[in-house]
Amino acid sequence: MAQANLPEPEQLALRILRGERAAVAGGLNLLDNKLPEARNRSARLLAALSGERALNDGHLVGVTGPPGAGKSSLVSAMIREWRLAGRTVGVLAVDPSSRPELGGGALLGDRIRIKNSSHDDGLFIRSLANRNQLGGVATEVWPMSWLMLACFDIVVIETVGVGQTEIDIAEIGDTVCYVAQPASGDTIQYLKSGIIEIPDIFVVNKSDIGAAARKTASELGRSAPRPDRRDDWDYPVCLVSATMNTGIRQLNEHFDRHRKYLVGADLLGTLRARHQSGWVVRLLKEEFGTFGLELIGGCAAVGERLGENQHRQFEEYERMRKHILSRFMSASQPSSLTKGAS
Amino acid sequence: MDSVQTKRDRPWLMRTYSGHSSARASNALYRTNLAKGQTGLSVAFDLPTQTGYDADSPLARGEVGKVGVPISHIEDMDQLFDQIPLDQMNTAMTINATAPWLLSLYIGLAQRRGIDPKKLSGTTQNDIIKEYLSRGTYIYPPGPSMRLIADTINYTVKHVPKWNPTNICSYHLQEAGATPVQELAYALCTATAVLDRVQASGEIRPEEFSQVVERISFFVNAGIRFVEECCKLRAFGEMWDELTLTRYKVADPKLRRFRYGVQVNSLGLTEPQPENNVQRIVLEMLAVALSKGARARAIQLPAWNEAMGLPRPWDQQWALRMQQVLAFETDLLEYEDILDGSPVIAAKVRQLVEGARREIENVEAQGGIIAAIESGYVKRELVASHMQRLRAIESGELKIIGVNCFQETAESPLTLGSDGGIMKTDPAAEREQIERLQAHRKKRSEADVQAALQGLSDAARSGDNIMPSSIRCALAGVSTGEWGDSLRAVFGEFRPPTGIDIAIDSRAVLGKKDQVTDLRARVASTGAALGRPLKLLVGKPGLDGHSNGAEQIAVKARDVGFEVVYDGIRLTPQQIAQAAEEEGVHMVGLSILSGSHMELVESVLQELRSRDLASVPVIAGGIIPQEDATKLAALGVSAVYTPKDFNLNTIMADMVDVIRHANGLERLGQLP
Prior knowledge:
The structure holds two protein chains of two kinds. By secondary structure, chain A is α/β, with parallel strands linked by helices. Chain A has 15 helices and eight strands. Chain A has three domains: 1-49, no CATH class; 57-264, 3-Layer(aba) Sandwich (Rossmann fold); 267-342, no CATH class. Chain A has helices at 9-17, 21-32, 36-49, 52-56, 71-84, 110-114, 141-149, 165-170, 185-193, 211-223, 248-264, 268-295, 298-308, 313-332, 336-341; strands at residues 59-65, 89-95, 106-108, 123-129, 154-160, 175-180, 201-204, 237-239. In chain A, strands 4-2-5-1-6-7-8 form a seven-stranded parallel beta sheet, sandwiched between helices. By secondary structure, chain B is an alpha/beta fold. Chain B folds into two domains: 12-404, Methylmalonyl-CoA mutase (TIM Barrel, Alpha-Beta Barrel); 513-662, Rossmann fold. In chain B, helix 11 runs parallel beside helix 12 and helix 18 runs antiparallel to helix 19. The interface between A and B is large, with 34 and 45 residues.
């Protein structure tokens, strides 16, 4: 029954590329769907959406930080500026799920904090629960952000940073932005934890509170410019106030500058291709486990195959899925030998 | 008869909270109520008036004249008080975010009638802080809201000295689930925040500050546990006396009196066997009348049928007669405080005072009530208390006659009439109000209006008291929406935390544990069958800010495994349908308590159809009469829940089945 309603992926992809909202919503639903037929169609949809353009267009921005740092209001202020400049924005807002033994439900409350009250066709928000997955970002986030990138100028992924999450975000975003809570121990913990290497841009929100915000900014500033990631990026630290709407335009300019930097250094395509293969491996692992990956030669072999064909990773992904599925089928084919053994 | 000679205390002010459809209809109602012996007025405004929108604003659609009277400009105010002498009337207005505006219309009207504003007496509720926690008719952020409260206080103390400029409300906190200790603590913290703000404004000379303290009054709730409630009011009196003495150095004990008005509890009124509400209301009234030292200054009682819909004039008359019987027939008013000296009462009062002190310290440690609201702390505490109450009802630990015990009943003759025992507002009211407003706009001087609005914006920006420029606006014929919009442009708008992000309490308090386990399995298996976890959108369309029901459904749905999108109050049908599309939900749940369910639900269904989402099932909850529930079902609503559906587990099981049915899966039926 539910399968009867599943859309035709290639048709859907055309509508998504035209920016039809209903198609975007339908595509996100399909990518979220774990029924076997939906998985087949998801792979086809992603393949239909990929290509050279997917590695070069748009801007995938990750925003993370501790709870209470004001991420949503910051994202809201960033969106206001982007929309004023006529750029369309897609948002994936990720919230934590409750533990599986407590039902695994989730309250997704970011939408209203991000959106202002007026109707806007150039903005699309999907909230998502992290579903207790390791790393804090659900497996679905990456294919969903990929879909959004096909039809919005800017795609923002907002997650609560609780340690491990930033690592996942760094494996999705072209540009990763960390929002620090002024005057909070979190920032110091963060500095110590070593995760500081990951964000490309630091933001201290709530600059309206004054000295405490400036202090946090200067702490970040002292430790931020690290030579261990990219030599020629300056890792800016921005002091902004989302509620007073100060410093937001400058922040957005840093995002643009970072994207230009990636393109100029010929890094954008490489970065996305690398992220893409990382998530393909993760998707395969989620569906088939390590055993499934071993059936097609293990992680390294998979990475190699994906690397060989950067623009066609999803077609490759689908081929690998089919391959693993066929191996599973043949492995579970009852043979006279196994019959006798059991 | 002895009692004839005995000296009796003067009774409290008797009011009925009322207003509906139009200024003309409400005026007629007020005059009959006064003729029946009511001694004050209590004006209920409709939601567009309370949230600063004109009747022809898109957000006002379906809400005009529903929960109260629409007042769009000074001519409406004139009609509302037609043949009512303003200098002799005591008028309470339940108005908050737009309190300075409605007070300006009242003062402007008095001036136009040649009445000295110094003779006006009454109350503007004007407690915006509790609006963020319950009720929801806030507009502006906390900073400007506090300023508006302070401006009205500073103005009235000087120019309308008999007016109570603010009525600190613990009433709505109880409706949102507060325990007596929480009510005491948060109301007193709010009063302190207001007084501190007025003090900091520097507009009042230190030696006159006692008069400001004296003008602060309270609006309190009384629930069915009437002994404890009575003790709560004695505790309020003690704590207020102490606070005003120590913190504000008010020397005269008379100026330190805890003055309060009361509306008894509506949360505990039931839809099943609604006649039982009469006993509940009478007992709750005892809580605020029994103890002379802690007796209410003004009482308004709800009607027995409030959980079913709007009360009719006869229902309101019955509520008024309850007060009159207590005041004039019984011997209550012949005695001094009959509870003084009771060690049981004293001990209970002590316990409440101590609990409240601890919670006040807790709030102050967080930087005061505003900070604790902005962080979501207070709201979370209230949502959690309310959740516990519902769980206690579900488990039967908290008994509610006719609801979770003694459900057997004969058919009630009270609800058999052709009107179903409730009042219907005039369906033409909205159109007529819009026509009246548009005609008014044509008549007034545009130059005067623009000049007055400019003066208002200037005052808002400069920090000058907002009242003089608002009164000028009133006299120039400015509309409620224009006043609200001018300040929105300066102050911005605000959405407080929803408070539903409370942690799941894993200690077996989730209703009946086996049912919750079963529900979680149903939610999970249905999600697996559909390919992804069940996702629910909880939406509150319209201007109604009573969000408790929506919040409880959202929290409960999360607890049993739904992924829940809740966007808070005051959304348009278009926003809700758009959210349903963007979020890819399996179901849309709508909560509406303002009586606008027919218009709003129909609009949401239309918006969903226009987005090709007709297959997403829609359910509705609220105060929805049976007749309307049938109509909603015919429009395509899958289920309607009303106050009689108190068991959240049952509702959840039903919701899962609605989703299953909509997706061609077999229903699982009732929980074991």
